[in-house]
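Quick one, T. Sequence first:
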Amino acid sequence: MENQANLLHISKKAFISVVLILLGLMVVAGILTHIIPAGTYVRDADGMVIDGTYQVLPDGGHPVWRWLTAPVEVLWSADAVNVIVIGLFLIILGGTFTLMDKTGGIHVLIKRLIKRFKHNKYMLLRVVILFFMAFGAFFGIFEESIALLPILILLSLSLGWDTMTGLGMCLLAAGFGFATAVTNPFSVGIASNLAGISILSGAWYRIIIFIIMYGVLQFFLVRYAKKVEAHPETSLTYDSDREKVRDFNPDQALPYDNEALIFRAYVILFVVLFGGILGAGLAELVFGSSIPAIPLMAVIFLIGGLTAGYVVSRDIRFTFKTFASGMLSVAPAFILIVLAVSVKHIITEGGIMDTILFNLANALSGQSPYIGILFIYGLVLFIQFFVGSASAKAFLIMPLLIPLVALVGISKELAILAFVFGDGYTNVIFPTNGVLLIGLSIASVSYGKWFRFTFKLQVFTLLLTAVLLMLGILIGY
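Structure tokens:
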């Protein structure tokens, strides 16, 4: 096992394709700053836009040389902390999973899961989808789902499916859950607070939508998994999956003899991890106390991963050397995060984001409720391409929308629903989402293949959510 490639690493081919996409988007963003006039809103102490304060700026057009320096500038911008925290989390994650793989932890966990569910594997698929969707909908878990991506991909392959199925039941499910947002504190929570209503106001309709979207996603993934199981050659990742299956065999001899010890060591790690995530989510939801989940997970993986690795191997030098090797194998992920944030940075520094908001908000005035709610949905979808953060988008958009929606006959609850729809589903298709790009790179899947895999589902979801929004108008939601 020592000579095998690290389990968690960034595929060179996927990395290059993603870098080229992001560089192209940076150029497009820079060009837009020379086409759209610059303008700005006044913001309060919390960074919230103050309606009616928009003014045109005299100078426009972001200098070309600053397009090139944007990846460096983001490291001391308002997004710097998030970039660094997510980057460190992924690097630590790489160390933990490499150590877990080299000590036999991955093999033991997957072997036991296969033994337990081999005769009921589609029930397992449905349960895993529900798990990730629920964590996204109720606690706002999305980025954190990457922590289990390597295991779920290998589990998917071991059960006769493919990498796309593994990505689907992890990243796609978390993204769909985040978008259904029953009590997601980062989207519906902040938006409700800005609108002056309770996070539970209108939750009954969001729960119904959660059930509908769960049905859609599990039908899509189960149908796809059955097709791939029956005809493996139809998989978009058929060739690369054959290589992964050759490299990974859950029945191969373990590097250490004590399988029970290996199992206990890593189960304890994940129990502590899930307990930490659940505790952070409940603290945010119930008490409004913000405990950052990603830094918490990073600490758990760092301490717990090293501890479990040493308990199994009893070799401190091997433990730290393997952990360091895993960290280096995912280090390129930091570059992807920086480039993804650079697109937003160019738009913001070029002064055109507020101009776009001003004109779109004005266009909403005088529309019918049905047109108006679709307009809000489209506005959020557009802004989402450049501003992936749900909380940042809420502070940017909601102060402008809330005074307008009452004038066109739209409730605050429905406006918030349109906001969370526009904010969430595109997390798993827009190429400016750093988490998606990192997940694809870890899975060795190109963005083009992922787009082909999810495009029809995204189109159907777009149409279905538009109908659900208009139904909200019809029933007086």
